[in-house]
Amino acid sequence: MKKTLTFTSPIIASTESKFNVEAFDVSVEAFENHEYLKSFYALLDYINGEFRTKYGNVQGNEFKIPHGSIVVNIKLDDEKLLITAPFVALPEKGRIPLLRQVAGLNFNGMDLAMIYLRGEHLSFEYSCPIQLINPYKIYGVLDEICHTGDKYDDEFETKFGAKRIYEPKITPYGKKEVDRIYEALQLSCKECLDAVKYFEPARKYGYIWNIIDTTLMKFIYFAQPQGQLLNDIQKAIFNMDRDDIPLPEITEQGKAFVEKLQGMTKEELAKDLYFVETFISPKRSSNLQNIRDNFESSYKRISAYMDEGDYMTACIMMLYKFYEMYYYNDLQEDVNRVVVSALKKTSALPWEEAAEELYKAMEAIMEDELDEYDEDEDDEDDDEEEEEDDNDSDGLDMETYMKNVQAMQQQIMQNMQQAMQGEGMQEYLQKVQELQQQMLKGEISTEEYTLKVQKLAAKQFGK
């Protein structure tokens, strides 16, 4: 693996949040002044300024807002707020396991809303006196109803045979887009599995973990899948962060999931590629300071790797942080513009060449130089074209790095073989693999990793 991952333009170019922060401030102030209807109207305006007129009645006291396969019904008057969202109809068979899971959601999955059994139908419900419609609380109610309904409708249908009460209004991707996404998925999976194959002989499970996780988040970024496919990928990403099983097992499961994605037919993939109306975004609205806070620790490590000439590790970490940012955030346009530019320029480039551009983008975010990055972009495009013919000599930095680390590990292995015959080996390797993962996630530097492994070997094997 001598090049960075290929970039694929996303189906949705910008996911910038539509939240109107000023409207939320109005909502809070109105609530504090006991202007409860005004407070609720401002809360809807905060979420989306079009919802009141698009989904509300003339009187302004009833709203029917679609979110995926549910419709959130809101009624309010001078005394009470009532929120309901019909969910799914019970299946003819397998009701008890389904109801057990619903009970678990009521006790553990949600804080304010509840799922009720009304005849043969399950429904989300919440009500309170109008004097208690604190905008922070009501937003939380709407958020958990939308996210729980969105997550479990497909799962309950697939696992238990439940039937949707409301069929979502979807717009399937066109054939051209499906073809493009399918080809990009095949390429992404191949790049990932090739990287896994490259790192496996050296037991570089930290690198393997990082590449797999980045690949899964990258697919969600460019394809924006829906339905059970999205649920499956999100579950796979969640499982990549488990700390209750050994890292080699985690990466093996991740590898198997990537192979499963690679084996999907175009028709299977197309079933979960569509646009759908949503009420509450499943992602948080980005904030530049929050992004910086999240990047801060990794940025310091990456800066050190750049100074050391360890471009491979720097690139892998930066790609992970960028796609992680998209995975969790509806990203503001000024940051999105900078990152997309960097990802496009570095698509499938050798490590050293890619590292410089990716680092420049991260530095622009961390140093509040987003505008300066845009100003430099046109001049650098000309320089990049002149350097394209020189790429054949790049990519050796990773080989040098790998040789250095492997040499260190070979010495450790020699020490182990002299000091023992298999006893304690598994425990030692597990600890080394954990240190590799910490290094790639930016939690420790290369020097700290080397020092910790050396101390671990000395303690374990008496060298």
Tell me what the structure shows.
It is a single chain. By secondary structure, the protein is of the alpha+beta class. About 65% of the residues lie in helices and about 10% in strands. It is built from 18 helices and 10 strands. The chain has helices at about 20-30, 35-45, 50-55, 95-110, 135-160, 175-200, 205-225, 225-240, 245-260, 265-270, 290-310, 310-330, 335-345, 350-365, 370-385, 395-420, 425-440, 445-460, and strands at about 60-65, 70-75, 80-90, 115-120, 120-130, 165, 170, 275, 285, 330. Strands 1, 2, 3, 4, 5 and 6 form a 6-stranded antiparallel β-sheet that branches. Strands 7-8 form a two-stranded antiparallel ribbon. A two-stranded parallel sheet has the order 9-10. It is globular and about 70 Å long. The two termini are about 35 Å apart. Residues about 385-415 and about 415-425 have low confidence and may be disordered.
Beta-strand level of the residues, as a percent range?
Answer: 5-15%
Question: What is the number of beta strands?
Answer: 10
- The pLDDT mean sits at 86
Distinct helical segment count:
18
Distance between the termini: 33 Å
Content-based structural category: alpha+beta
| SSE string, helices as H and strands as E | HHHEEEHEEHEEHHHHHEEHHEHHHHHH
CA-based shape: globular
Low-confidence stretches: 384-413, 415-423
> Which percent range fits the helix content?
55-70%
Largest sheet: 6 strands, antiparallel
CA radius of gyration: 25 Å
